[in-house]
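Q: Entry one of two.
A:
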Amino acid sequence: MTDKKEKSKENINSEENATGSNSIPEEDDAMFSCPNENKEMTARDWNRIGRDLMSAGAVEEALVAFNNGLALDPQSFDLLKNKADALSRSGQKDDSLKMYEDALEMYPDNAKLLCFAGFEVLESGDREKAISYFEKSVALEPDIALSWFGKGLAFGEMMEFEKAIECYDKTIEISPDFTKALIGKAISLSALGEYEQAILFFNRALELDPNDVEIWYYKALAYDALGDGANAVIGYEKILEEHPDFDDAWNNLGILKNAMGQFDDALIAFDRAIDINSEQADVWFNKGYTHAMLGDFESAVKAFEEAILIAPDFENAYMEAAFASVQMGKTDKALMLYEQVLTIQPSAEAWFGKGICHLAANDMKKAENAFEKAYEIDPRYKELVDAQMKKTGC
């Protein structure tokens, strides 16, 4: 079986989703605004309109409003920050980063601006520079939870999970209900193999947001890593109740069902994953493996061939297809598959399988040559070869 998938961390790694109720507020919160023909519009008015448009998802229109405001007040902190945010949300990442840098020239000691700029830099891939921004931010204002959180994200992306946890701890100390920080710490603990501790923090996050799919997903992965398949299944089934189109959850559920010997249920899960996204080679492979476990080698080969069509260098798919072909007595097909494996990555297992095929065809010379190649790569195959030769009376 292929390994279970970890869902993309896009949600936790984005400032917009990460901040939630923990975002840094602006000074002027107002109801939805619109231009007033009976009064002269100020920069603050345009900022309010732009923010309302951003909340409504009208990012391009918001940019117009922010530009109108900046024409009146080119050094407005809120307008500069909000325009940078709007540029980022509209996909103009380079322009957004430039806007933050320009704003920081005017406000080099603004902790909030350094925080937001840090997220933009982090998204650009420059983690060390992002950390420097977050560190400057907390040096100026130590109680900005979002800055500590961003620093934790950056360390997490750098696989420095102990440092990430320190930052998440600081975030949680300042803002105990910062859900994404609880998730970040739990994921970091999982990466360090501290699955039981990770589950405790996933549970804390679920108390705040019981329907968050991301939390349930990573919690299920943690239970799975502990070998607690029953609780992992509960997690995946909870996810699929709310989000039946979550293909990775179906795949992981299928793997667990397979491990539990519930092969029919596993096939149902893999089929659901394939119905959602048929271009996942690993799911086709897992389906083929399950058919093989049930002794349905013909269906197994078909599934492995689908995996190979999607991923032509999928070595294990060739190997399992070859093995299933041997079980059906189709040694010519198996031989062709083993030869394809050897063009991808010469392995003792492939040479041994090739030898078995030649042995079945009574071609002793080719069989012996293949077996020699196998134990040249891995001497442990010598015992397997001797046992096979003895079994066949050679």
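Q: Entry two of two.
A:
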Amino acid sequence: MAGIPSTLFLNTGSLFCHSQSSCRAVNSCFVEKRALVRCSAKKKIGFMDQILDYIEGGPKLRKWYGAPDLPVKDGSVVEDDDQSEVEEVRDAVLVADGDSEIGQMVILSLIVKKTRVKALVKDKRAALEAFGTYVESMAGDASDKPFLRRALRGVRTIICPNEGFLSNVGGLNGVQHVILLSQLSAYKGASGIQALMKSNARKLAEQDELMLIASGIPYTIIRAGLLESTPGGGQGFSFEEGGSERKNLSKEDAAFICVEAVDAVPQRGFIFEVANGDDKVSDWQERLGRLMEKADEQQLQ
């Protein structure tokens, strides 16, 4: 994939800054109309609104920053070359369910880190219009072995922001790290009608975790509190055992943690709980390292 122009990050860097509220302003060339409405209402621009602004600017971004137009043949997007068997350098991060709400958050955070991104999506054309050539989007059935083999070419790490992907696929040959954002603890903490409504999702989450643990691939399972659509970056965190059953976690924070976990690869497997709380984290690599050490000590006991 072509390198991402540095001007893209200069103009949209404020879109992804996570820790300071002053960095959350959006470049006016993308959101002028929306910003006027929000400013008049004196409301803070949410990260999801920023994502929408960025996505709607997709076709313009390609023109502004010199990326090529979408490849079209007979009115449709050109399909991937099924015949190519050349093994690529494994430097990409594959995002499963990439056109979901939290999947898009993960993708955009990866783009700003200048990561090579591949994404499994339902609508390839829509994804290409949204992200241009900055994301290698693929649409297909992940349980189909030939399609999965193509999707995994060049992939080092997989991020699964929702349940269901891992329990639907076979082998993940060549993958060196899988990050699973799991809601299993939150589902276990549900009661009454909520527990009934989430019963199928809980089964999928359980299957995903079991499949990943048995895979032999180094993994990070992030057992998050109940995900909610609130602004991220302003709250602290809680890593206490059992906390994710009782507490919530902003989707923005969850996506951010998934991306930070890409560079923290465990030797075997690593599971930790996280929810919003009072603990401020300034260095996620250091914090993830400490959590890994704690998990290793518990396994030895």
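A: Comment on entry two: The first strand starts at residue 72 and ends at 73. Residues 6-73+86-300 form a domain with the Rossmann fold fold (CATH 3.40.50.720).
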